């Protein structure tokens, strides 16, 4: 779906014959490269080089032989450029686009349900290119003509692609870093390997696995139009202090049951992109950028905004894992629950940092161009005060905005993903986010904190929140204004209840165990823990 952000396709390498028995064999086209792929002839036991002009294959002695297992181990968990070019059944591959697709191979510690030990993640930047020539990304003509895109995995189709400076530099740098770290190669050994174009051989091995083991389908971009009217989609979002969950609801004109086409909100894990989280996830937030490879080489190609994820933060299990792995100590990189700090609108004096080894300031385009230093949206300020971020001192209240921006970006990606659309009616129609059902925040008169009241005056606060608030009120009435007596429910006693009956029983049990001093030990009336004054 065009202009739907970054879209992912997930595959697993088949468990049987995951890699070819024979190593990949290559020879240089010229002394300056690039490499050409050789085909093994079982009848003669020799390697043949096919020619594009229709001449008979030439018997050639390989200059490089590299096992596929070695290439997988060397380039695992690395984003690499993917040659997914315009394709015509009559004329073969056409020119470009060169910078709109990425690939990543990830080993699994345990076989998945299909027995695969490797996961392959393909990422596509669906942003349409508006300038000429359309050599880096798809353009309007590609979409309107329904032109197909396919994987080019034969070396004869990759000469121009591999000769591009940004592609060659990307592959060289990844090879140098991984060979030094994983194979402990010396500087002299690396220099010799680069001269023989070993980095290209490993890369071509991975493309061969994609082309011959997976046989990837062709791809077409779909646009809005009279023949494919957008399907409206609603997002129902419940943000809690400890956990958050969401539901995506599609509204089809022919369906009478508006809640029939539903699914849980999914979160793509960008530090482990082969993972999808769709259970109720942690409300934790962590500043981290989504990376799809070295940005300097992508910028060098001439496309400045390729694979630009609009959010600054990660949410849920990925955020919790990043927080546990943090090594630096300068500034802060995240917050356990933005909802708990909706009352704090003051600039955060310690400043916010990205969760990276160098811990740079937590500011990056495009979102940092829409906020000021305190996290206030620029459109809400007078024109003279609309200055973008210079130092990331966002208030803790503003972090809720950043959290919601990440959830919205994930939602827009999910509803237009191939995997999601094919499970719903009208799978070829684009999806449009129509509305977000989210209870608004307001200040509680007694605690000074912002709470989230539900529609029609009924509160949807969790059993923990209601019990804590009621305990504080009883403690204050008993002369304990800090709420540290028996009327305070400690956070370490929290258990999330997903069943309404269990939640009511939990509330009654909480009130029986944590009544105010001198209060009778009786269950609270139903709903008492939810009532706000």
TrEMBL record:
<dbReference type="Pfam" id="PF07520">
    <property type="entry name" value="SrfB"/>
</dbReference>
<feature type="compositionally biased region" description="Basic residues">
    <location>
        <begin position="522"/>
        <end position="533"/>
    </location>
</feature>
<protein>
    <submittedName>
        <fullName>Uncharacterized protein conserved in bacteria, putative virulence factor</fullName>
    </submittedName>
</protein>
<feature type="region of interest" description="Disordered">
    <location>
        <begin position="440"/>
        <end position="533"/>
    </location>
</feature>
<dbReference type="InterPro" id="IPR009216">
    <property type="entry name" value="Virulence_factor_SrfB"/>
</dbReference>
